[in-house]
């Protein structure tokens, strides 16, 4: 069911803003556990913190983050409560996979929409 009241949609999406601010990269669907998270590399991969900005009609925008990433095919991004360990909040497939044949950087600008 679509939520017709804009302020209700915004309240629902804002739960993500207070639940998690750390993004992760994944080489497969992280399912409900945050599995398949990228690791390794030099400089080493690590989760990155975004700063969320609320919209008014069910939108959420995050600041761009840049990950150091080893050679990998990145297919998903995840949301966590902490830079390491923590609680896995959600995962989302990227619109297209990012293929790195060697160590490089991946830039992600997160956003959310509650309908």
Offer a quick outline of the entry.
The chain contains one helix and nine strands; from the N terminus they run αβββββββββ.
Oligomer: single chain
Q: In terms of per-residue confidence, which ranges show pLDDT below 50 for 5 or more consecutive residues?
A: none
Quickly count the helices.
Answer: 1
Mean pLDDT: 96
- Provide the gyration radius in Å: 15 Å
Structure class: mainly beta
Distance from N terminus to C terminus (CA atoms, Å) equals 8 Å
| Shape, principal axes of CA atoms | elongated
Main sheet overview: 4 strands, antiparallel
How much helical structure, as a percent, in the residues? 10-25%
Strand order of the largest sheet: 2-1-6-7
Whole-number tally of structural domains: 1
Tally of DSSP β-strands: 9
Question: SSE order, as H and E?
Answer: HEEEEEEEEE
Into which percentage range does the β-strand content fall?
A: 35-45%
In words, what does this structure look like?
This protein is mostly beta strands. It has one domain. It has one helix and nine strands; from the N terminus they run H-E-E-E-E-E-E-E-E-E. It has one helix at residues 6-19, and strands at residues 22-26, 48-49, 52-54, 59-62, 65-69, 72-80, 88-100, 104-108, 111-113. A four-stranded antiparallel sheet has the order 2-1-6-7, with no helix packed on it. A three-stranded antiparallel sheet has the order 3-4-9, covered by helices on one side. A two-stranded antiparallel sheet has the order 5-8. A hairpin with a 7-residue loop joins strand 6 (72-80) and strand 7 (88-100). The longest helix is centred in the N-terminal third of the chain and has 14 residues, at 6-19. The radius of gyration is 15 Å and the shape is elongated. The relative contact order is 0.29.
């Amino acid at each position: 069911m679509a939520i017709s009241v804009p302020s209700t949609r915004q309240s629902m999406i804002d739960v993500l803003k207070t639940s998690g601010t750390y993004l992760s990269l994944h080489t497969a669907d992280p399912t409900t556990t945050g599995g398949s998270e990228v690791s390794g590399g030099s400089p080493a991969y690590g989760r990155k913190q975004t700063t969320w900005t609320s919209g008014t009609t069910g939108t959420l925008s995050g600041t761009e983050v840049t990950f150091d990433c080893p050679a990998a095919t990145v297919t998903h991004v995840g949301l966590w409560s902490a830079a390491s360990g923590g609680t896995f909040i959600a995962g989302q497939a990227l619109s297209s996979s990012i293929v790195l044949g060697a160590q490089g950087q991946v830039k992600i600008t997160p956003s959310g929409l509650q309908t």
